[in-house]
Amino acid sequence: MTITAKDGPSTSDSKAPFNSSAEIEQTDGSPAQAPPSYAETLGNSTSGPGTGAPPAGLAIPEVPLPTPLPRATNYHAEKTNREIKGVYVLDTAMQIPPAILANMSSGFFGLGKKEPENLNLYTSYGPIEADLILVSGEQQKRVTVLLETGGGKVDFKLLSRINAQPVKVKAKSGYGNMTVYLPRDFNGPLKYKSGWGTVTFSEGMRPFVHQFSGNMGYLGDWNVAGFSDYKTWNGDELEVVTQGGNITFKWADELMQREAGSPEEKFHEAITYAMQSVMSWFGGRK
């Protein structure tokens, strides 16, 4: 099932880039200085608290977004037993007719909740590959994302957002690998659990992660963000769970450096694909 809004601004011609800080160099040609700390970077931002914008005098390369972009919506849901793959543009400022919103809240989309997730993707066996772009820039409105597959892998990318609009993501797989790409202005708690696999942070992200245990950490600076407890927290939040796969966290701009997987990763992908095929065969029997 797919639900999209019929009205709203078109983003089909959008070519807005998002900033990354994979490579930072002096604009005047002088020797590069040691990079500032995470807190210093946030503190020197000219785009508001918690945005992670670069300090004055530093140039950050731009990475173009995929084009053409689909039309923006406030809510989107899919439920299938096949692969789910797409680019999703969410505008939380968009007004949805009450009758449509009520129908979504009572059905699969909302699962009886008062307000449904902005993005809800579910597949019984297939993989999920979702690229997310946030365009409203509402700092007080947190975007909620729910991704779930019975056995496939999950590849989630938060490519771009305006004014560091907060996002809460929950991703779950039975035995697939999980890869999450986050923007450099992400600032919030992490929960991660892999029953048989490993949890890995990219080399570029590792200096900004506080790991408190094997399944809990924080990406960024909680003093800058003002995080104290989950009940009152309305900022960035991420939870990733898989029973048999590996979990990997990377910066979104590291997509440009993406390389083919190791032999071990390819072997795991082959096993996962075989298990998906078996599950699909049994699921299709009458």
UniProtKB/TrEMBL annotation:
Polar residues biased stretches: 1-30
Biased composition annotated in UniProt, kind: Low complexity: 45-57
Region of interest (Disordered), ranges: 1-73
Coiled-coil region list: none
InterPro entries referenced in this protein's UniProt entry, alphabetically: DUF7330
Recorded superkingdom: Eukaryota
Signal peptide: none
Ranges for domain DUF7330: 77-254
Pfam families in the record: DUF7330
UniProt-recorded name of the protein: DUF7330 domain-containing protein
Organism field: Serendipita indica (strain DSM 11827)
